[in-house]
């Protein structure tokens, strides 16, 4: 203790002196944090740089025995204002500037980042500024930060924009994937570090021109892997050619055997299907037919229906049993031997979807169990026939009600609001609560079915995609979906994520409220589609004028306004501005919730395309990325 006291007294006499105790014959000395040596700080002897060292006297010299911190990136403000450190076993301790910033001093080339960074473009101090998210960050020093515990990220963003001194904002707490609270920095950002693992997102304020430039740069990086993937695909075509010829030969052989089968099903036209007749059709797999296959993966406990069962249930696909037709193919009402009613989806040969979409739907829906998702009972595979057997929804699809003047009267506002909440909870399960994250990619009113009690159930997972781990965004060359419901980034760039489904949900909410189709409504005089028209009325405080006249009667006007406001937030042109489904459910269900103001919808894809599924290309591969916004 006497040694340490001597050291402190020596340091107090000369603030700029780096003191080392040299009291012999003592064995070791603790070197306390020394004070900053620059002249500007000489007048503040209490400021320390935070380095603790221990020296040992041996062989006539002082030897550094121990020091802290051991990680160079843990040194306080190592990279200066608006700079951050990235250190792990695969990287040298380098300083980097935040996006939109550049090094203040040429010393950066000598790995001295203590001078920090400066902006490339000055802020305008207004709503023309923007924000850019930086992922996996240890947040800056919060000594002078302001915390708003009850504020949402959307409100936090608006508050930061309104304050010319605001430099960045972030969530105060992230628990269970849900952001809560808000932290705002109105001073220079210091002591940041980026980690390879998931930490927090920091939203830094930049000039809008810098935000636009960063968006262009990110889009370019997403496309680079495409070139590599295309080259690999071309080289693989030659390897697959031989396998394709073999498969084709086997297919022709099976067809030849089928033509010589002893019996065929009764009927005529395209609906005639060959099968081996059974006295008592049941639900058991037809193990005696070598052409039969399993429904999907081995771990899926899903029955394989015999073809004879399907034919008997649908009266050989009689015209009067047909319920409708979608992108997958026709749908028939079937009645099993025990009286249970089912819906049978038969893959059409003319469908833009195929065997891969069939397998995809089986694999996805069999794993999903939720009150607001349609239940898959089994499937049928026979030669080139593919069929899915679902629970029967007695009230058909949502679009048959809201777009029909007569049936629309059966759906009052309270029931429509329950349907909106049900769809939101179903999407929340797909995005955040199921075993795997599911992106539906074709959310629309015709893919929402209604049971006896008008409970909505999301259906048609043929083009859905599973995301694993922390993956939240993917890029595809094959854009499949329905115009009007597709988010701008998916329709134009092939980028899809959970935010794509949220955009489609916002469109559906506006359709449920108004009873108008997104592709059928267009105001010639105002040059507005349904989204733009809804935003105009909301801005003028006339949201309730959007209500479908077919409903009649009284309604909760506050609920209507809340639904329209949430829908407009969901159809924001920027994916990062759209709320997560967990926030959507809370905003819809919370009567006293404070909602952020939506932005004006910024994209109109035109008004001359048919409201049908489509494909822009014939081949597909997908490049996956992590979310950047």
From TrEMBL:
Residues 125-207 form the Apple domain. Residues 280-292 have a biased composition (Basic and acidic residues). Its main location: membrane. Residues 317-595 form the Protein kinase domain. Gene3D superfamilies: Phosphorylase Kinase, domain 1, Transferase(Phosphotransferase) domain 1. The chain crosses the membrane at residues 226-249. One of its GO terms (biological process) is recognition of pollen. It holds the Pfam family PK_Tyr_Ser-Thr. Residues 259-292 are annotated as: Disordered. It is a single-pass membrane protein; Single-pass type I membrane protein. InterPro entries: Kinase-like_dom_sf, Pan_app, Prot_kinase_dom, S_locus_glycoprot_dom, Ser-Thr/Tyr_kinase_cat_dom, Ser/Thr_kinase_AS. It is found in: Cell membrane; Membrane. GO terms for cellular component: plasma membrane. GO terms for molecular function: ATP binding; protein serine/threonine kinase activity. Keywords: ATP-binding, Cell membrane, Disulfide bond, Glycoprotein, Kinase, Membrane, Nucleotide-binding, Receptor, Serine/threonine-protein kinase, Signal, Transferase, Transmembrane, Transmembrane helix. PANTHER family: RECEPTOR-LIKE SERINE/THREONINE-PROTEIN KINASE SD1-8, RECEPTOR-LIKE SERINE_THREONINE-PROTEIN KINASE. This is Predicted protein.
């Amino acid at each position: 203790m006497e040694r340490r006291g001597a050291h402190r007294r020596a340091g107090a006499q000369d603030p700029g002196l780096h003191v080392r105790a040299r009291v012999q014959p003592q064995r070791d000395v603790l070197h306390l944090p020394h004070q900053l040596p620059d002249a500007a700080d000489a007048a503040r002897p209490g400021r320390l740089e935070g380095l603790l060292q221990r020296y040992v006297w041996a062989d006539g010299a002082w030897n550094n025995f121990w020091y802290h911190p051991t990680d160079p990136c843990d040194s306080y403000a190592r990279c200066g204002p608006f700079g951050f450190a990235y250190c792990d076993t695969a990287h040298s301790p380098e300083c980097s500037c935040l996006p939109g910033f550049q090094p203040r001093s040429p010393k950066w080339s000598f790995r001295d980042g203590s001078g920090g960074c400066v902006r490339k473009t000055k802020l305008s101090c207004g709503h023309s500024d923007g924000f850019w998210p930086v992922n996996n960050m240890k947040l800056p020093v919060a000594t002078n930060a302001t915390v708003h515990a009850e504020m949402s990220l959307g409100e936090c963003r608006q508050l930061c924009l309104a304050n010319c001194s605001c430099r960045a904002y972030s969530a105060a707490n992230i628990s269970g994937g849900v952001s809560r609270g808000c932290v705002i920095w109105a001073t220079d950002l210091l002591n940041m570090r980026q980690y390879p693992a998931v930490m927090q997102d920091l939203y830094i304020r930049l000039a809008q021109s810098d935000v636009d430039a960063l968006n262009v740069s990110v889009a370019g990086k997403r496309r680079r892997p495409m070139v590599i993937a295309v080259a690999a695909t071309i080289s693989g075509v030659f390897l697959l050619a031989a396998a394709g010829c073999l498969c084709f030969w086997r297919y022709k052989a099976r067809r030849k055997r089928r033509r010589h089968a002893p019996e065929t099903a009764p009927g005529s036209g395209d609906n005639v299907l060959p099968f081996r007749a059974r006295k008592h059709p049941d639900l058991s797999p037809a193990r005696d037919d070598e052409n039969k296959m399993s429904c999907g993966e081995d771990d899926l406990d899903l029955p394989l229906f015999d073809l004879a069962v399907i034919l008997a249930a649908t009266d050989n696909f009689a015209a009067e049993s047909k319920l409708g037709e979608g992108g997958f193919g026709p749908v028939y009402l079937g009645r099993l031997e025990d009286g249970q009613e089912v819906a049978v989806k038969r893959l059409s040969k003319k469908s833009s979807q195929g065997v891969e979409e069939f397998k995809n739907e089986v694999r996805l829906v069999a794993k999903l169990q939720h009150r607001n998702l349609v239940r898959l009972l089994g499937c049928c595979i026979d030669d080139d026939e593919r069929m899915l057997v679902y629970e029967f929804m007695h009230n058909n699809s949502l679009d048959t009600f809201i777009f029909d003047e007569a049936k629309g009267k059966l759906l009052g506002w309270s029931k429509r609001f329950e349907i909106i909440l049900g769809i939101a909870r179903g999407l929340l399960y797909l995005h955040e609560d199921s075993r795997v994250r599911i992106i539906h990619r074709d959310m629309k009113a015709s893919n929402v079915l209604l049971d006896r009690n008008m409970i909505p159930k999301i259906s048609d997972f043929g083009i859905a995609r599973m995301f694993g781990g922390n993956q939240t965004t993917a890029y595809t060359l094959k854009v499949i979906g329905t115009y009007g419901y597709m988010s701008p980034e998916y329709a134009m760039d092939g980028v899809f994520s959970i935010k794509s489904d949220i955009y489609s949900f916002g469109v559906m909410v506006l359709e449920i409220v108004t009873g108008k189709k997104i592709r059928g409504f267009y105001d010639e005089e105002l040059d507005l589609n349904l989204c733009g028209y809804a935003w105009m009325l909301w801005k003028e405080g006339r949201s309730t004028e959007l209500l479908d006249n077919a409903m009649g009667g009284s309604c909760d006007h506050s609920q209507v306004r809340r639904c329209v406001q949430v829908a407009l937030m969901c159809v924001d042109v920027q994916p990062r501005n759209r709320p997560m489904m967990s926030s959507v459910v809370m905003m819809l269900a919370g009567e006293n919730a404070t909602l952020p103001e939506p932005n004006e919808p910024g994209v109109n894809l035109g008004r001359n395309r048919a409201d049908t599924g489509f494909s822009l290309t014939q081949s597909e591969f997908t490049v996956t990325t992590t979310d950047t916004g």
